[in-house]
Amino acid sequence: MTPETHPRPRVEGEREQEILHATLDVLAEVGYDRLTMDAVAAAAKASKATLYRRWSSKSALVIDAVLAQKGPTTAPDTGSLREDLLQMHCGAGGVTDERAMSVLASVITAVNIDPEFATAFRRDFIGPKVAAGRAVFERARERGEIGDDVDLDLIAPALAGMVLHRTHLLGEPPSKATIAALIDQVVLPACHATHTSAQPQDKDHA
């Protein structure tokens, strides 16, 4: 067997996790645009060839790294919509996880400029989170916590949307107290809302 035909060892196990962790460090420090395979190799004390044995491109490496730290994707089931939402958003990988939010901020640009990355990110990272969040609201509806006329497609992502707006546009890092206030003052009241069509009064008949 010639040297060229020897199978190259796969990067896996603890070494793979070390490289993924180093990728997240570089990503949080310089962002997706400036992240290079050379920079990750240096941070992980590995050769660039080692990285390419496992990942064919920068986008593939970053996707795996983000998935490795995304936290649980199973929906909590405490029997209370409020407690489920607190657990989802305030635990590891949630919106109060500073490292997770830093990594998320770093890949926003990539989602907008790299179609391959955007497709994989939405499918593998966002997709499971959306499904878990939807399951929480569906169970809450079955328990009678949400009105039948409430659109779950609108309300389920509302909390994350509000938090990301405050974080990335207003520069206000989320806290558990903020999450609880948004749940109590916005999300839960919206879950009980009954839609009515306001009829304008005719001044002649008022």
UniProtKB/TrEMBL annotation:
<dbReference type="Pfam" id="PF16859">
    <property type="entry name" value="TetR_C_11"/>
</dbReference>
<dbReference type="GO" id="GO:0003700">
    <property type="term" value="F:DNA-binding transcription factor activity"/>
</dbReference>
<dbReference type="GO" id="GO:0000976">
    <property type="term" value="F:transcription cis-regulatory region binding"/>
</dbReference>
<dbReference type="InterPro" id="IPR036271">
    <property type="entry name" value="Tet_transcr_reg_TetR-rel_C_sf"/>
</dbReference>
<keyword id="KW-0804">Transcription</keyword>
<dbReference type="InterPro" id="IPR050109">
    <property type="entry name" value="HTH-type_TetR-like_transc_reg"/>
</dbReference>
<dbReference type="InterPro" id="IPR011075">
    <property type="entry name" value="TetR_C"/>
</dbReference>
<dbReference type="InterPro" id="IPR023772">
    <property type="entry name" value="DNA-bd_HTH_TetR-type_CS"/>
</dbReference>
<keyword id="KW-0238">DNA-binding</keyword>
<feature type="domain" description="HTH tetR-type">
    <location>
        <begin position="13"/>
        <end position="73"/>
    </location>
</feature>
<feature type="DNA-binding region" description="H-T-H motif">
    <location>
        <begin position="36"/>
        <end position="55"/>
    </location>
</feature>
<protein>
    <submittedName>
        <fullName>TetR family transcriptional regulator</fullName>
    </submittedName>
</protein>
<dbReference type="InterPro" id="IPR009057">
    <property type="entry name" value="Homeodomain-like_sf"/>
</dbReference>
<dbReference type="InterPro" id="IPR001647">
    <property type="entry name" value="HTH_TetR"/>
</dbReference>
<keyword id="KW-0805">Transcription regulation</keyword>
<dbReference type="Pfam" id="PF00440">
    <property type="entry name" value="TetR_N"/>
</dbReference>
